[in-house]
UniProtKB/TrEMBL annotation:
Entry-linked Pfam families: Arm-DNA-bind_4 (PF14657), Phage_int_SAM_3 (PF14659), Phage_integrase (PF00589)
UniProt KW keywords: DNA integration, DNA recombination, DNA-binding
Gene Ontology BP terms: DNA integration; DNA recombination
Gene3D superfamilies: 1.10.150.130, Intergrase catalytic core
InterPro entries: AP2-like_int_N, DNA_brk_join_enz, Integrase-like_cat_sf, Integrase_catalytic, Integrase_recombinase_N, Integrase_SAM-like_N, Phage_Integrase
Organism domain of life: Bacteria
Family per similarity comment: Belongs to the 'phage' integrase family.
Keyword DNA-binding (UniProt): yes
Name of the protein this chain belongs to: Site-specific integrase
Residue ranges constituting the Tyr recombinase domain according to the UniProt record: 172-386
GO molecular function, one term: DNA binding
Source organism: Companilactobacillus allii
Length: 394
């Protein structure tokens, strides 16, 4: 880290100098060095060098004392954006912008302490179910500062992670429907929209009966549908770029590339919608004969807005719940909840293995499916004991 050399002045007097590392260039990673001259003896130079080394070890390079968390973050993002898709980068930028930079951004990174980080993570855990993800992203900036020797130790690595609060996850049971609720929703969709919005009817049926992601369905082109074979090719997805504009991207993982098989009713529904869609778009002046034509286009013949299905499903649920003749209410879920509904009913049917369900929905993370499986198993266990008690009668 430091070296001591002897030098002479023109008048013949000898002195010693210490050359030492003050930090690393954040872009190249190469060490940046300085020197201190004028020591009369080698021992004096060694003592100064030792004290400087201890100070650096304890507090990081003094040259970096005024660097803020935001400055390190800016360097981190420059490197990070080259390793992920634009949709992922857009998501991560949002997490930093909303949750992390307002807290740490203006603070000098060397002044951020373990207790400060502990309090921030504790607060996140009280307010956000995905607080661990927020903490992990915040920690990436501290790790970069540590690699560049801007800080000596990473305060975020030394906190105690709060325990998950079970009540935060109770709402998870409400994110999907059972078979009866799904049937009610699909019937209400047809009743409410009728001939006015066959697009919504076909879209919701596809998600509910394939478990595909909303963004995958919106990216479908006519060429992806084989009516004779009753198959649907999933090989792309609607996503957002760095400017938050909708673009077509590749599936999240290799598991996302898959061929889905449709039941006859769903295949007929989709086939009829494509015929209707082509007529509607032709009236608007678009030539839809190409096999690259979007199956669910907007009025400009581009991909439908990602938020449009959310508005549709909310409208259908509201229309059903507003009817006083209906004895029950439909829980409010999103189109993603229809995907979870597919998994739930598939598990309850006992016709598919967990591996088959995982392959169908294209999810590389089995934990999502296992969480739903645990819910279904718990429900089945309760029904079992209730049946037993009813039979015994005492």
């Amino acid at each position: 880290m430091s070296s001591i050399t002897k030098y002479k002045l023109k008048n013949g007097k000898s002195f010693y100098r210490v050359q030492y590392t003050v930090g690393y260039d954040p872009l190249t990673g190469k060490p940046q060095r300085k020197q201190k001259r004028g020591f009369k003896t080698q021992r004096e130079a060694k003592l100064w060098s030792a004290r400087a080394t201890v100070d650096i070890d304890n507090h990081g390079f003094t040259e970096n004392k005024d660097i803020t968390y935001k400055e390190v973050y800016d360097d981190f993002i420059e490197s990070y954006k080259k390793t992920v898709k634009e949709s992922t980068l857009n998501h991560v930028l949002g997490i930093f912008r909303i949750h992390i930079l307002p807290i740490f951004g203006k603070k000098k990174i060397k002044k951020i302490t373990i207790p400060m980080c502990q309090k921030v993570v504790n607060d996140w855990s009280e307010n956000f179910a995905d607080y661990k993800k927020i903490k992990n992203y915040a920690n990436l900036v501290f790790k970069m500062a540590r690699r560049l020797s801007i800080i000596y130790e990473n305060p975020m690595d030394l906190i105690i992670m709060p325990k998950d609060k079970p009540e935060m996850h109770k709402s998870g049971d409400e994110k999907f429907w059972d078979k009866e609720e799904l049937q009610t929703f699909l019937e209400q969709t047809v009743k409410y929209y009728g001939n006015r919005n066959e697009k919504a009817i076909a879209l919701f049926r596809l998600i509910a009966f394939t478990g595909a992601r909303k963004a995958e369905i919106l990216a479908l082109q006519v060429a992806d549908f084989d009516y004779d074979e009753k198959t649907l090719l999933i090989n792309k997805t609607v996503t957002r770029d760095i400017d938050n504009k909708q673009v077509i991207g590749t599936p999240k993982t290799i598991n996302g590339y898959r061929t889905l098989y449709l039941d006859q009713y769903t295949a007929d529904l989709l086939h009829n919608w494509i015929i209707r869609m082509r007529k509607e778009m032709l009236i608007l002046g678009y030539n839809t004969s190409s096999r690259s034509q979007w199956i669910f286009p907007n009025e400009s013949n581009n991909t439908l807005s990602l938020m449009k299905p959310n508005k549709w499903i909310d409208t259908v649920i509201s229309s059903y719940n507003a009817n006083k003749d209906n004895k029950t209410k439909l829980k409010r879920i999103t189109p993603h909840g229809l995907r979870h509904t597919f998994v739930t009913i598939a598990i309850e049917s006992k016709k598919l293995t967990l591996k088959q369900i995982q392959e169908q929905v294209g999810d590389s993370d089995i934990s999502v499916i296992m969480n739903i499986y645990a819910h279904v198993t718990k429900k089945a266990s309760k029904e079992t004991i209730d049946s037993f008690t009813s039979y015994v009668g005492f």
